[in-house]
Design goal:
Blueprint: H1 2-30, H2 33-45, H3 49-62, H4 67-79, H5 83-96, H6 101-114, H7 117-128, H8 136-149, H9 153-166, H10 171-183, H11 187-200, H12 205-217, H13 221-231, H14 238-253
C-alpha cells in the first residue's frame, strides 16, 4: 500500500512539474516576437488574415521595427485588397532591412497592381542582385508579367523563359510563355508551353482552359472539345463557365 501511495505521489508531482513547465513555456512564447510572427505566418498561410494580423502586431509590440512582422503585415493587407496599406508596410520593412529580398519582390507586385510600373520594375530588378536569393524565378515571372501588360511581348518572353530556366518545375512560367506565344501568333509553341505547364500541374483548371483555347484557335477542335467538357465539370467561375459553353456551341456546329 505504501509503495502504491508513493507511486501516486510521484505521478502527481510529475504532473505538477509538467504543468508548471508547460505554463512557463507558454509564458515565454507570449513574450517571444519570433513565436508571435510564426503564429501570424501560420494563420496567413491558412487564409485567416485577421488572426494573422493580430499576431504580427503583437510581434511588433514586443520588437518594434521587426522586419519580418512588417513584411507579414504587408502581405496580409495585400490579401485584404488594401494595396496602399500593404505598400506602406513593405516600404517600412525595407527601411529597416533593405536586404530582405522577398520584400522587394512583394513590393514590386503591389506597385504593379497600383499602376506604378517603373517602380515595380525597379523592385523586381533589385531581386536579381541578391546572389543568395533562391526564388529568382518569381522575380523573372513578375517582370515578364509587367512587360506582358505593356504588350512588350518579346521582352516578356525572355523573362518568362528565364523563370523556367531558373526552375524547370515552375508551371506558372510555362503558362505565361503560352500566353505570350499566343499574342505573338505562334500557336504551336503556345500549345507546347501549356502542355508543359499541365505536365507539372495536371489539375490546374486555368492551364487546361488556356490550352483548350489555343487548340481551338489552331483548328484542333476535337482536342479542344475534350478539354472544355472535362473542365466544365469542375469550373466554379460563372464567366469561365459561360465562355466554355460558347466555345462548345461553336465546336458542335462545325
Amino acid at each position: 500500500m505504501r509503495i502504491k501511495i508513493i507511486n501516486i505521489m510521484v505521478i502527481c508531482l510529475s504532473l505538477v512539474f509538467c504543468a508548471s513547465a508547460q505554463k512557463k513555456l507558454e509564458d515565454q512564447r507570449v513574450e517571444d516576437p519570433v513565436h508571435q510572427y510564426n503564429m501570424g505566418l501560420f494563420y496567413l498561410n491558412n487564409n485567416q488574415v485577421e488572426e494573422a494580423v493580430k499576431y504580427f502586431n503583437k510581434a511588433l509590440t514586443l520588437k518594434p521595427n521587426y522586419d519580418l512582422a512588417l513584411c507579414g503585415l504587408g502581405l496580409a493587407n495585400s490579401m485584404k485588397g488594401d494595396l496602399r496599406e500593404s505598400m506602406k508596410y513593405f516600404q517600412k520593412c525595407l527601411q529597416v532591412n533593405p536586404a530582405l529580398t522577398e520584400a522587394h519582390n512583394y513590393l514590386g507586385v503591389v506597385y504593379q497592381e497600383m499602376g506604378f510600373i517603373d517602380k515595380a520594375e525597379e523592385e523586381f530588378k533589385k531581386v536579381f542582385l541578391d546572389k543568395n536569393y533562391h526564388s529568382k524565378e518569381l522575380a523573372f515571372y513578375n517582370l515578364s508579367r509587367l512587360y506582358f501588360s505593356q504588350e512588350r511581348f518579346k521582352k516578356a518572353l525572355d523573362y518568362a523563359q528565364l523563370s523556367t530556366k531558373e526552375n524547370i518545375r515552375f508551371a506558372m512560367g510555362y503558362n505565361l510563355q503560352g500566353l505570350i506565344h499566343e499574342r505573338l501568333e505562334n500557336l504551336p509553341q503556345a500549345i507546347k508551353s501549356y502542355e508543359r505547364a499541365l505536365g507539372i500541374a495536371k489539375n490546374e483548371v486555368n492551364f487546361s482552359y488556356n490550352l483548350a483555347i489555343a487548340l481551338f484557335k489552331n483548328g484542333e477542335f476535337t482536342r479542344a472539345k475534350d478539354i472544355f467538357e472535362k473542365i466544365s465539370l469542375t469550373v466554379t467561375d460563372p464567366d469561365m463557365r459561360e465562355k466554355i459553353n460558347q466555345y462548345l456551341n461553336v465546336i458542335n456546329k462545325k
